[in-house]
Write a structure and sequence with these properties.
Length: 199
């Protein structure tokens, strides 16, 4: 099993957590920030926290890998009641990188959920609505959604449907989360992505 953490991904509009804070710095207008893990602030990995974007683009490249069949698993969280905009209509893609093709354009797996419920059906918590409300209004909006359970919160695993086949001649796998539609996306948190061998 290979893992790439958020701090090693290419994320559009990411500001590094070491950026000095100042009233007019990029820190204050960052679309994404690397922050301490909410469950393990001292020992856990940094997570990518989405503040707000319209251009959603996250990419990771698994370099050379043993031949075989692999599942792609994202460890993520949706932390506001409006987080569904970050995943509904968003493409979760995995492409094998062939020689001479560094982008993994030949997608082996593409998942584009049409609803939050469809997205959640591919997670380890299929009948829940995982968002952590920050205001009373958000709590009321979540409580109105079927499947919301206030006791089930935090990070969960999204397993993309389908498998990636890696051969001896391939140069790894590129995984991507992409949505360039002109709407505001917020509340997504990313811990890591993994390739899990199944055969």
């Amino acid at each position: 099993m290979a893992t790439i953490y958020a701090s090693d991904m290419t994320i559009a509009h990411m500001v590094d957590a070491r950026t000095p804070k100042g009233p007019m710095s990029d820190w204050d207008t960052a679309a994404w920030r690397l922050i301490d893990h909410p469950r393990e602030p001292r020992s856990g990995p940094k997570i990518a926290n989405l503040f707000a974007v319209s251009w959603l683009d996250v990419k990771a490249h698994f370099k050379r890998h043993a031949p075989g069949q692999y599942k792609v698993q994202w460890k993520v969280n949706l932390d506001t009641s409006s987080s569904s905009a970050a995943v509904v209509g968003t493409e979760f893609r995995a492409g094998v990188v062939h020689k001479g093709d560094e982008e993994g354009r030949n997608s082996a797996v593409v998942f584009r959920p049409a609803s939050l419920q469809e997205f959640m059906q591919h997670t380890d918590r299929p009948n829940s609505i995982p968002a952590l409300p920050k205001t009373m209004g958000q709590l009321m909006a979540l409580q109105a959604q079927p499947g919301y359970d206030q006791d089930v919160q935090g990070f969960f695993t999204l397993t993309l449907p389908g498998e990636v086949h890696i051969s001896e001649a391939d140069n790894g796998v590129v995984v991507q989360i992409q949505n360039h539609q002109d709407n505001r996306k917020t509340g997504l948190q990313i811990e890591h992505v993994q390739l899990v061998r199944v055969a």
